[in-house]
Amino acid sequence: LGAIGGLEHIEFIGHDQLFRQCFAQIVIIIYQQDFIQLCHGVTFVCSIVNTCGAVARKTRFATKLSRGRVATRLIVSILTKARYIWPVTFPNLVLHMVLGLTLVEKINRARADMRLGVPVMLQGVGEQALVLAAEVVTPARLEGLRALGPGLVLALTRHRAETLKARAYDGDLARVIVPDDMGCDWLRALADPADDLRHPMKGPLMSMRDGQADLHRVALALVKSAQLLPAVLVLPLADADAAGAFGLTALDAQHLGHELQRETVLSPVISARLPMAAAQAGRVHIFRPRDGGVEHYAIEIGQPDRTQPVLARLHSACFTGDVLGSLKCDCGPQLQAALAQMGQEGAGVLLYLNQEGRGIGLANKMRAYSLQDQGFDTVEANHRLGFEDDERDFRIGAGLLRTMGFGQVRLLTNNPRKVDMLNTHGLSVVERVALRVGETEENRAYLATKAAKSGHFL
């Protein structure tokens, strides 16, 4: 019963946390399995009240029992009731809970589906929709969506909508109506700004203003997390069983949105000694997120005293700067200078966070570079792509430092946002240490934009 995460609408909630959430109901989905002779899934809904005490009274268990025992007894009660709905045995249901996909596992499957151009089903309160990344849509899949019914729209972020002069009635996004005679090339032209200057006229674009945009908002967050362009086809459906009929991944939109906003929890995998040019006493730590995301690294120089402020840097991965020596940014020189300063002081920790391109991924970063070649600055390029100025999550760095036992830092950075993020997530930045290196003729305008628009101290 510890595998409660296998329940369709509960993710990683242990017995001691179950009733801290305000769930109106618990839904158990029994999918087709060899040991359960079903042709289709069976849904059993058990309504419960919100608080732990009320649940205990409702199920006639004393509230003085530990929260864990109440939760365990309640789950047993629900599963026992489920047996009256369908003749399956209790052990088989528990086995399904253990082997079935958790919410986090389904989200990772959905990300892969998005990148492959496979639709995903999002389910809300009284509504459901198929969503598909516009960047990778094929003519066959587009026709398949249209065959399912009317109402196809393209969800775009506010920044991309402003570029296209599409009205964002929902504030942070626009729901652009997709005409029946428009194909994949038109959709990709709306999603990708590569040819905006050569082919600026794509409209007139008509945006929806009626109805809810909750599913569209979550769909954009999902496609961003897959590091695709933030442009998503959304087709509302009347039939909630469509996902099962087509074998598609289905996700509850509310729980998906909550999970995508949750702080990433990382666990140590391994550490090993690594002598470096900056310091002989180097050690590399590998951390793996529990949500199935990419790994992040900590490079520890010397043996920093955990009771004293540590010289630290949060460095976002930059393939072009760190590896290729790009002159368009200052990332490579900052990486080397930070390690060198830690080596000179004899102690420090550099977090190497895999958030390429300020969190948009290498492919989208190259798209931004292409736009910069057309005359747009780094912030304008991000906005034309549909992204925010900076999509990175610095909470990851705060979590890593806490996990490594640090509480106070002397932060090597020019970015005030990093200072604020650490200070509000369990650490104390006792000093900001400037890191002004790597200015070139090629990146001078880029650095000026970071100072003027992103508030960097340069």
Describe the structure.
The protein is 38% helix and 19% strand. The chain has 18 helices and 15 strands. Strands 9-10-11-13-12-14-15 form a seven-stranded mixed β-sheet, sandwiched between helices. α8 crosses α10 and α14 (362-373) crosses α15 (378-385).
Q: In angstroms, what is the radius of gyration?
A: 25 Å
Name the overall outline: globular
Poorly predicted parts = 1-90
Percent of residues in beta strands? 15-25%
Offer a quick outline of the entry.
The protein is an alpha/beta fold and 458 residues long.
What's the SSE blueprint?
Blueprint (H helix, E strand, L loop, with lengths): L24 E6 L11 E6 L4 H7 L8 H19 L4 H10 L3 H14 L3 E4 L4 E6 L5 H10 L4 E5 H7 L8 E5 L6 H8 L22 H12 L5 E7 L4 H5 L3 E3 H9 L4 E8 L8 E8 L6 E6 L8 E7 L2 H5 L7 H15 L2 E6 L2 H4 L2 H12 L4 H8 L9 H9 L4 E5 L3 H8 L4 E6 L10 H11 L4
Parallel strand pairs: 3-8, 12-13, 12-14, 14-15
Antiparallel strand pairs: 1-2, 3-4, 4-7, 5-6, 5-7, 9-10, 10-11, 11-13
Helix pairs in contact: 8-10, 14-15
